[in-house]
Design goal:
Blueprint lengths: L6 E6 L4 E3 L2 H8 L6 E5 L2 H10 L24 E10 L2 E9 L4 E12 L1 H18 L6 E4 L2 H9 L13 H16 L6 E3 L2 H4 L10
Helix pairs in contact: 3-4, 3-5
């Protein structure tokens, strides 16, 4: 009988997130003082636990009534997402007009990156693109709570080690942080509620 798949939540580690194998999880918690992580039997339970936080009391995932995102998000929106083949691995990101099904930008793949960095760069890219057009009203959506937190802090908290191999990612990251520092007024930024609305329209479809 095949072994049931596990999902691993890392609340405190080198790069917090949800991982679909112990090997990937172990890379995030090994040699990290005070690492906090746990295995779950389903991706839904893992997502719920990750958003609730390490200190939250366990709450069973409840069925939700899925909502058509077209009825709840502003028509003038940009949705961003990132993909990473491995962690770290080849990383790319993009932004789309969800109603027009138009890819507005796409960058990468860049070697030896992380998904969270890609999500962060995608948000800032969308913000900068809107700034150039004098647009301060369009809402940007991302399904990464971590990347949204980094944008509000105007800096990333990645633990990724940089070298010549991923120097381009480091350059893009520092440039994005500098742009946020120089542009205090940002477009509205909201979390894409995957559990309620379904997959992000910018998703690369590689899960």
């Amino acid at each position: 009988m095949a072994k049931n798949r596990k999902y691993y939540v890392v609340w405190q580690g080198h790069d917090p997130g949800i991982y679909d194998s112990w090997d990937k999880c172990q890379l995030q918690v090994k040699a990290f003082p005070g690492a906090k992580f746990k295995a779950f039997d389903s991706e839904a339970d893992a997502r719920l636990a990750f958003h609730q936080g390490w200190d939250a009391r366990p709450v069973a995932a409840k069925p939700v009534l899925h909502v058509d995102w077209r009825t709840v998000i502003p028509h003038d929106s940009i949705v961003v997402d990132a993909a990473c083949s491995g962690n770290p691995g080849d990383m790319e990101y993009r932004g789309v007009d969800p109603f027009g099904c138009i890819e507005l930008f796409r960058r990468g793949p860049y070697p030896h990156g992380t998904n969270n960095i890609g999500e962060f760069l995608a948000i800032v890219h969308a913000m900068a693109m809107l700034k150039e057009k004098g647009n301060t009203s369009t809402t940007v959506f991302s399904d990464s709570g971590i990347a949204i937190k980094w944008v509000h802090a105007k800096r990333s908290a990645t633990k990724l080690l940089f070298s010549e191999r991923n120097r381009r990612i480091e350059e893009l990251l520092r440039r994005a942080e500098a742009w946020l520092q120089a542009n205090p007024k940002l477009n509205p930024l909201r979390k894409w509620e995957t559990d309620l609305w379904g997959e992000n329209p910018a998703d690369f479809g590689r899960k």
